[in-house]
TrEMBL record:
NCBIfam families, alphabetized: 2A0309
Predominant place of localization: membrane
Cell location: Membrane
Transmembrane segments: 12-33, 39-62, 82-100, 112-134, 146-167, 187-204, 216-236, 270-294, 306-326, 338-356
PANTHER family named in the record: SPORE GERMINATION PROTEIN A2 (PTHR34975)
Native organism: Gracilibacillus halophilus YIM-C55.5
Keyword Phosphoprotein: no
A GO-annotated cellular component: membrane
The protein's name: Spore germination protein
Membrane topology type: Multi-pass membrane protein
């Protein structure tokens, strides 16, 4: 089913957490540690402080321009031609993010659990499962996210509790790592680690009431931010920056610290199951959102048939980087640096133009 406005606050809340909070368990910490060293856990704080006001301003504009999603709002304020151009750019950003992130997760699965399997084979299975999940529609996705959320969060926070004894708090010093200017600069340049918040605005009309969407999205954004900080802090106190910058998948490495006695070995595999479940939900949501974006831009009301060709394009584009290092430390880093100023400034530009045109007075 397509958007019928059936989602409630709890389902919006769960979807946002699935999209954003899982960055606590991917390779983003390794990317941040390359320049900020042991101060990398402070970068998301700067990023959130910089980009969250822009997200709140976009929410405000959607509230003032009733019955519009992200793309419709942009076209309403900027006009059809410029608005459609900006919307296409956002779609390309979302598609590129989905492509690079999915390659990242496929590499994690391959390296950690199926080293002998071809990357293309794992990629087809991973995106194929996401495609079949996305076919169920936004209402089923929202309901499934809400049902799965407690299980996933309990498993993740159980992991935190079990590694508390391995934390060495002195490893956070010097607090600013390679320096405060580096932390501030990287925080601004990488603010787009929260870009999914903007992509989700295409589903603004999916909630029963607009207030439900606003409440669920804002509260979940803050909680996701706190979760990311908590996990990054644990990474730096368990490993130290020399280790983190060399560890591609810190979440899985930290799971190896968990012990349940001599009779329970390879317990990290249990956490891998919940991590993989969360990853699938993220990409199910993401794939549905980009199809929704494309359909809105080109006025395709029944956009669900677009899911299959878009899923195929994600696989083809995701296989282009010749290795995971180039994908993560070149392509993904450059994408974040391009998207960050765009999403920081876009809401203010829209607000100023709407104010100048007198559309905020109505």
């Amino acid at each position: 089913m397509q958007n019928q406005g059936f989602l409630q606050t709890k389902e919006i809340f769960a979807i946002v957490l699935m999209l954003v909070a899982i960055k606590a368990a991917d390779s983003t910490p390794s990317l941040f540690a390359q320049k900020a060293q042991n101060g990398f856990w402070l970068i998301p704080i700067v990023s959130f402080v910089v980009i969250f006001p822009s997200f709140l301003l976009m929410i405000y504009l959607l509230k003032r321009f009733r019955d519009k999603n992200l793309m419709e709002l942009i076209e309403s304020i900027l006009g059809k031609t410029i608005g459609k151009l900006i919307s296409i750019i956002i779609f390309l950003f979302a598609f590129s993010t989905l492509t690079l992130d999915s390659r990242n997760y496929v590499e994690q699965i391959k390296v950690l659990y199926f080293p002998e399997s071809p990357t293309i084979f794992i990629f087809f299975i991973f995106i194929g499962v996401s495609f079949f999940g996305a076919k169920k529609g936004i209402e089923v996705i929202g309901y499934t996210s809400w049902i799965a959320l407690p299980i996933i969060k309990i498993s993740f926070f159980t992991l935190i509790w079990l590694v508390l004894g391995s934390m060495v708090y002195e490893r956070i010093f010097p607090i600013f790592g390679s320096g405060l200017p580096v932390i501030l600069s990287e925080g601004v340049k990488k603010a787009a680690i929260f870009a999914e918040l903007f992509f989700l605005l295409i589903a603004y009309k999916a909630a029963k009431e607009e207030a439900m969407f606003r409440k669920g999205a804002v509260v979940a954004s803050i909680i996701a931010f706190l979760e990311i900080i908590a996990f990054y802090f644990i990474y730096i106190t368990v490993f130290d920056y020399n280790s983190v910058e060399k560890i591609a998948f810190p979440f899985h490495d930290i799971a190896q610290y968990v012990q349940f006695g001599q009779f329970f070995t390879n317990i990290e595999t249990l956490f891998m199951v919940f991590w993989l479940f969360a990853a699938y939900l993220k990409f199910i949501v993401f794939l549905y959102l980009i199809a929704w974006m494309f359909g809105t831009i080109f006025h395709i009301k029944n956009f669900e048939p677009l899911l299959l060709p878009l899923a195929y394009l994600v696989i083809i584009a995701g296989l282009l980087p010749f290795n995971s290092i180039y994908n993560e430390f070149v392509l993904r880093e450059n994408l974040l640096m391009i998207m960050s100023p765009f999403f920081i400034l876009l809401p203010f530009m829209l607000w100023f133009i709407a104010l100048w045109k007198g559309e905020l007075k109505r």
